[in-house]
Amino acid sequence: MIEIKNLTKVYPSRGGAVTALDGVDLSVAPGSVYGVVGRSGAGKSTLIRCVNLLERPTSGTVWVAGRELTALSPKQLRAERRRIGMVFQHFNLLSSRTARENVELPLEIGPGGARLTRRERRTRALELLDVVGLADRADAHPAQLSGGQKQRVGIARALAADPHVLLSDEATSALDPETTRSVLKLLKRVNEHLGVTVLLITHEMEVVKAVCDSAALMEDGRIAESGTIGDLLTRERSELARELFQLGEAPAHTALPDTTVLDVTFHGDATARPLIAQLSRTYAIDVTILGAAIETVNGQTVGRMRIGLPGRYEDNVVQIGFLRERGLSVETVGETGAGAGTARLEEVAS
């Protein structure tokens, strides 16, 4: 549904050019919810604004629903933007208009809007306000709405022209946690019931856990890592998996003498099986639990555990194989003990 190839965006400045996007490639499957995460300044918002060409990229191509937007004339681009809805961080509602009138706006000014009668626009707006749970607030002005209600109006407005794609630029960052959860449920419902592909920008891992099928990590204007959530959670050395499951730092080499430290990810049927206990019984070893987390990621239960096995890595190759043969993802974090694992821990840290 969205295909981005070698996208670059350079801003001129007095101190020299600033590269906000540096050769970004991104592919978003139809009907998916795709999250782009990263720290402030990573290039996330520039990326999403380049998808609908609110920002014109310096180079590269953007395809949406089979059309190359970067090759269209201004008139053609205006027509294509009608099928790309956008939800903003700060709502961007017109204060002089009611909720219903804000939702009607794209139907008034967009291409083809003149073909709709006032009654048809009103009916469409009321239908969408009902979808987002605000049918009883149709005549309220933005000043009379809470933050969550304003964002719901923004979502209804973004859906007014029946878009292929919904872009969400930090849509929940200005909301409290409870309101954030309700807005995310709404976005997921829109995705599932209306078939709208959602590309969302966020710095909150909770957003990725709640609704995303796939995700990408941006750093310094580049995609550092991307994939489906299932793939990322089982990928060794995945920075996104580390962020989704906060297990803390690996212990210092003096904390546990002669121990191999592993991060083990449980998913699917493995989450309900006592595999660590089986490991301990099978090889008659004491397994140290150093940390654990269980999360629901896009409706799927996933667990991650940091464990310590007695001995150096070479002593535990068979035990690690035991875990992997049973469908677990195992990442060697390092070794502890005098002179045994400092180099390996330093390698992982780097």
Would you kindly provide a written description of the structure presented here, covering whatever features stand out?
With 350 residues, the protein is α/β, with parallel strands linked by helices. The protein folds into two domains: 2-234, 3-Layer(aba) Sandwich (Rossmann fold); 251-349, ACT domain (Alpha-Beta Plaits, 2-Layer Sandwich). The chain has twelve helices and 14 strands. It has a six-stranded mixed sheet, sandwiched between helices. Strands 2-1-4-5 form a four-stranded antiparallel sheet, covered by helices on one side. It is elongated and about 75 Å long. One of its GO terms (molecular function) is ATP binding. This is ATP-binding cassette domain-containing protein. Residues 2-245 form the ABC transporter domain.
Biggest sheet statistics: 6 strands, mixed
What is the residue-averaged pLDDT?
Answer: 86
Radius of gyration: 24 Å
User: What CATH architecture label of the largest domain applies?
Assistant: 3-Layer(aba) Sandwich
Low-confidence regions: 338-350
For the largest sheet, list the strands in their spatial order: 6-7-8-3-9-10
Order of helices and strands: EEEHEEHEHHHEHEHEEHHEHEEHEH
| Morphology | elongated
Keywords: Amino-acid transport, ATP-binding, Cell membrane, Membrane, Nucleotide-binding, Translocase, Transport
GO molecular function: ATP binding
InterPro entries: AAA+_ATPase, ABC_transporter-like_ATP-bd, ABC_transporter-like_CS, ACT-like_dom_sf, MetN_ABC, MetN_ABC_transporter-like, NIL_domain, P-loop_NTPase
Pfam families: ABC_tran, NIL
